[in-house]
Hints:
The protein folds into three domains: 21-110, 2-Layer Sandwich (Dna Ligase, domain 1); 114-240, D-amino Acid Aminotransferase, Chain A, domain 1; 250-398, Succinyl-CoA synthetase domains (Rossmann fold, 3-Layer(aba) Sandwich), CATH 3.40.50. It is 36% helix and 26% strand. It has 13 helices and 19 strands. The protein has helices spanning 5-14, 28-36, 76-86, 143-149, 167-176, 181-200, 237-240, 250-257, 276-288, 305-316, 335-348, 364-372, 384-398, and strands at 22-25, 43-47, 58-59, 70-73, 90-92, 101-102, 106-110, 114-125, 130-136, 154-159, 203-214, 219-221, 224-228, 261-264, 269-273, 295-298, 323-330, 355-361, 378-381. Strands 8, 9, 10, 11, 12 and 13 form a six-stranded antiparallel sheet that branches. A four-stranded antiparallel sheet has the order 1-7-2-4, with helices on one face. Strand 17, helix 11 and strand 18 form a beta-alpha-beta unit. The chain is elongated and about 80 Å long.
Amino acid sequence: MNIHEYQAKELLAKFGVPVPIGFAAMSVDEAVAASAKLPGPLYIVKAQIHAGGRGKGKFKELPPEAKGGVRLARSADDVRAAATDMLGNTLVTIQTGPAGKQVNRLYVTDGVDIAKELYLAMLVDRATGRIAIVASTEGGMDIEEVAHHHPEKIHTITIDPATGIMPHHGRAVAAALGLTGDLAKQAEHVTTRLYAAFIGTDAAQMEINPLAITDDGKLMVLDAKVGFDSNAMYRHPDLAELRDLTEEDPAEVEASKYDLAFIKLDGDIGCLVNGAGLAMATMDIIKLNGAEPANFLDVGGGATKEKVTAAFKLILQDPAVKGILVNIFGGIMRCDIIAEGIIAAAKEVSLAVPLVVRLEGTNVELGKEILANSGLPIVSADNLGDAAAKIVAEVKKAA
């Protein structure tokens, strides 16, 4: 689960991380009122969407020469003009894709005189089972280019969660950022506080870009991108309340209501599978047969009629879908019950695209018999390879 920049900064401030003063705004008038609470004379008006690259982004509704989603303002009139441009309009960045995201919230923050921009992030390194700190002296909007062309400028320090953060980790971060003296001590403090926030909130990532050195010699977090482990949200009801559903794919939001793992893709063959590994194998074998999957969808081990029906509806919401492949291993659930659920779901959604079903596991023969006697044009498959070949052929035939 991701949160907005202003939410991330408010959260980090509670853990003692230095951030500039700022206020969220949901309207133009709120943005102007927020600037009145700040010292000035320089203000920063920032579009709040779950995507990076806002400063270099462009609004669909504005002229190409218009500024992006992060703007400097030196008066209340400048703040009003920036807020008017941004709110309700669609910001396209390198991370949103061509569709962009509509801006519904702003963050008006105090301006900071920047001497240098640094980069600092924390994330879970699953390869080592540790927390990884990523640091670079090359912070700012071009960090992706730095990582691609100058990987030697990206430094990684790992922390064993069994021991937690130690003083030498902070010193290593300071060295990676090229800091000495008082700035090195500040870097150690920021690293320690970020680690406390990371562990205390069950975060999956915390990206600070930039971590700025100000003209008066202070380290300040000027932007923060924070995401949490969704599986841990039951431990953090206060954080769960920060979720902004308008920033998420509507189909994925709907899927979460039924405890379905769903991710939309760009192909035309819908996949309904139980088990993440089996779902990935299903997508791979569809590609191997020369087609593209339209989604990743894992209904889990307890595939009930309700979940299967919800899954069918989700898949068919995508107008690009020209066929559906159901691949179920009936280990926990019996294949006959799954077959009944598939039939009921197909009837309820008035299925009008080819459907290929591969069942394996407990009561598989009974399940196949139920499908065969359903009166529906369901194509049964004997194995995964057979299923993929059949759905690709059915889609081509129907084209």
